[in-house]
Specification:
The protein is mainly α. Helices cover about 65% and strands about 0% of the residues. The protein has helices at about 35-65, 75-80, 90-100, 100-115, 120-145, 150-160, 160-195, 200-205, 205-245, 255-265, 290-310, 310-320, 320-335, 340-355, 360-365, 370-375, 380-415, 425-450, 455-465, 470-480, 485-510, 515-520, 520-545, 555-560, 580-610, 620-650, and strands at about 710-715, 720, 725. The chain has a three-stranded antiparallel β-sheet with strand order 1-2-3, with no helix packed on it.
């Protein structure tokens, strides 16, 4: 590029939305945002405030029809756990919402732009199996500890204070990485599209979110998640239909195929543009992609940490109606697959099919989708992408804010500062934590931007930081012989191995130079991610087998059962009978573990293997590939947008929990002094009791069916004290 002019010429003779030729451009955006800056401020503040008001009003309306002591602002169990009666459809929408990051919309299309058809697939498959497999842990929560508030309460009961502190570090770090990625990607895109200062956007994006999250607690996040999911899917379908059905410069899968073939041939002899150098035949239409496979492995490893170590997913499982846990997480995971797969197969591939002058720098910033949207729809496309992205950022940000606030309230404040904390104090600390995290996350995102650390770099490196905690945390609910020392050693040892491997490979491949660029290479990232996830279980298992714990799961259920701060009749399962009973959960666990494992094998092994004979894809095979993306996108819309509404009008028959049929001895909520940390507690098991601490758990008063003041929850509403239905989402 010399004096603002390059040798670039669009091989298809295309012009931009306004009819101006692309020829001679040095970049797509040329440093000029397609939208006015005022619109950017409106998206960040105006739309943010509007959604905050709408969500807050929904929470207020629901609370006004609920018994006073069960309202979100007055009952800590309602504030943090949502009454533990969220239905499957709304759970699926929430999973899709909080798993849709800025990276889901931006990085997936960037990988498609770099690697071709393999990019969208590996992004989607590599981040879907974690949610599917987490359904097993969601069931285990209901089977073994339905009264918990955070994953760390399980760690504390099983392994003591030292393990509790270690995994508190990993959980907070996970939330920090996820939140930073959200804001980093969102702020960069808003700046590119509107010109709003990236640092101002980093600080302001989380602010409106914390308003309705602090006001409505978990219920507020569910209301927001559903509305955000609706808009995200509508935008996705608009782009898919515009690209593959027209009217547009593509308009069909056949035209897309022909243009990709032409662009790949041209790109091999063109500098300044990204193309699939590691693909077989240099084609964008093949799964034989070295870069795509490396990304897929890193994606799989890294995303295990951001699901299994993220409190927001545990919190969502805790809040579910028991039978909705596995249904919601399986349905949500399968539906989420459509967002990166369908969107990147559309926008990511279209960037090449249109031969747009997107530079490597713009691609690295996640600006491939905005570029295609601007070409197709002009300022309307830019606004739709910015709006969709803003909602994706805020829908996950609210879950992360509440997750961090719950960790601070239950695992810091109540555990180490005020063991006698009341429900009112828990709510106050949670709200303070939400506001603190909103401000702090903006600071972290600004720091990352200052050091020129991109969204893609953070996304690829996250497994190095948190992958080592995945297996030990999973063992806390699935392996009775795992010990505190084994869990700690595995997590810390895996982290050390990841960093040693990561830095060593980066140095060896770059003449001893270690910096952000060398650490961001494919092979250093791959090494660190694999060591993080694989070394951890080896250490954990070996150390644990030296002195197995042989833990009694009934002890976990009894001790965590006393963690309730206030009454929650839905914190215990029925012994038998109905879809929410222990018997039903045992049966669900049997099938979900096998079904989830089989589905994961299909997604990451069988499916890609079956595509290898097509090298490269034929035109008809590519048409079938696009048809899958279309069908999956529309079915996901039905599952996460239409199904929750259907559940509202036609709620499941077995929706209510009768505490009198609980399969365990119900206990009256106490402040759990027996589980407060003791000074000498490196491998202490609090379930055994600490010296000088009394265990007291008197039973609930007997419940014999609905009585005055008892409130049950339907899919989208509550039954109030008079037994009349309340037409609003889950009970507040």
């Amino acid at each position: 590029c010399v004096n603002g002019v390059s040798q670039y010429k669009n091989i298809f003779g295309l012009s931009d939305y306004m009819g101006k030729s692309y020829d001679g451009r040095c970049s797509f955006f040329q440093g000029t945002p397609p939208l006015p800056e005022g619109l950017g401020w409106f998206i960040i503040l105006g739309i943010g405030v509007i959604f905050a008001l709408i969500t807050s009003l929904m929470v207020w309306f629901a609370s006004s029809h609920t018994r006073e002591d069960q309202q979100v602002g007055r009952n800590s169990e309602q504030f943090t756990s949502g009454g533990r009666q969220i239905p499957a459809g709304l759970t699926a929408a929430d999973v899709v919402s909080k798993w849709t990051w800025a990276a889901t919309l931006l990085q997936s299309s960037n990988v498609a732009y770099q690697q071709g058809v393999s990019g969208p697939f590996w992004y989607a498959a590599g981040a879907t199996i974690q949610v599917i497999l987490f359904a097993t842990l969601a069931i285990e929560i209901k089977r073994k500890c339905p009264a918990i508030h955070t994953v760390l309460e399980v760690v504390l009961v099983r392994w003591g204070v030292a393990a509790h502190m270690v995994f508190l570090f990993f959980c907070i770090l996970t939330n920090l990485i996820v939140t930073a990625m959200l804001i980093l990607g969102g702020a960069a895109t808003v700046e590119a599209l509107t010109g709003v200062n990236v640092y101002a956007a980093s600080f302001l994006i989380p602010i409106p979110v914390c308003v309705y999250t602090a006001f409505g607690g978990l219920k507020g996040t569910y209301y927001a998640s559903f509305t955000h999911t609706v808009i995200i899917f509508i935008a996705l379908l608009i782009f898919m239909w515009k690209i593959y059905a027209g009217p547009s410069d593509i308009g069909s899968s056949d035209r897309m195929y022909d243009n990709l073939v032409c662009d790949a041939i041209k790109s091999q002899n063109t500098t300044g543009l990204e193309f699939a150098t590691g693909n077989s035949h240099g084609s964008l239409l093949t799964m034989w992609s070295q870069g795509g496979l490396i990304f897929g492995i890193v994606n799989i490893v890294g995303n295990f940490g951001t699901v299994f170590v993220d409190q927001s997913y545990w919190q969502g499982a805790i809040a579910c109606q028991p039978s909705a846990t596995w249904k919601g997480y399986l349905l949500g995971g399968i539906s989420w697959f459509a967002i990166p797969f369908s969107m990147a197969t559309s926008l990511g591939l279209a960037a090449h099919a249109l031969n747009l002058p997107i530079t490597p720098s713009e691609s690295a910033q996640g600006l491939v989708p905005p570029a295609v949207a601007v070409h197709l729809l002009g300022q309307g496309g830019a606004f739709l992408i910015a709006f969709q992205l803003f909602l994706a950022v805020t829908s996950t940000a609210n879950s992360e804010q509440l997750a961090v606030s719950s960790l601070l309230a239950y695992d810091v404040y109540k555990r180490y500062i005020n063991p006698q904390a009341t429900g009112k104090q828990i709510i106050f600390v949670s709200r303070a934590g939400i506001i603190f995290w909103a401000i702090f996350s903006g600071v972290v995102a600004a720091i990352l931007k200052q050091f020129d650390i991109s969204l893609g770099w953070v996304y690829m490196s996250m497994g190095n930081f948190i992958g080592s905690a995945v297996v030990p945390i999973t063992f806390s609910l699935t392996w009775k012989d795992c010990t505190a020392l084994g869990a700690i050693s595995g997590a810390v040892g895996g982290l050390a191995a990841a960093f040693i491997g990561w830095f060593s490979v980066a140095a060896s491949l770059n003449n001893g130079v270690i910096n952000v660029d060398t650490l961001g290479g494919n092979y250093p990232m791959l090494t660190g991610n694999l060591l993080s996830l694989c070394v951890s279980p080896i250490i954990c298992i070996i150390v644990s087998l030296m002195s197995p714990q042989n833990y009694d799961w009934k002890d976990l259920e009894e001790k965590t059962g006393t963690y309730l701060v206030e009454d929650d009749p839905h914190a215990h399962l029925k012994a038998s009978g109905g879809v929410d009973s222990k018997e039903a959960m045992d049966n669900a666990y049997y099938w979900v573990t096998r079904g989830g494992t089989a589905l994961s094998i299909v997604l990451i092994i069988l499916w890609p293997l079956l595509t290898l004979p097509q090298n490269p894809f034929s035109k008809s095979y590519f048409g079938w590939w696009v048809a899958i993306a279309f069908i999956w996108g529309h079915m996901a819309f039905l599952a996460t947008v239409v199904y929750p509404v259907v559940q509202y009008f036609l709620p499941p028959k077995d929706m209510y929990l009768d505490p009198s049929e609980s399969g365990i001895a119900p206990v009256k909520p106490q402040e759990m002094q027996q589980n407060s940390p003791a000074p000498a507690g490196f491998v202490m098991n609090p379930a055994m009791g600490a010296p000088g601490m009394m265990m007291y758990a008197p039973p609930f008063q007997s419940w014999n069916g609905p009585v005055q003041g008892f409130s049950t929850v339907g899919p989208f509403g509550a039954t109030n004290v008079q037994g009349m239905p309340t037409p609003i989402f889950p009970q507040a």
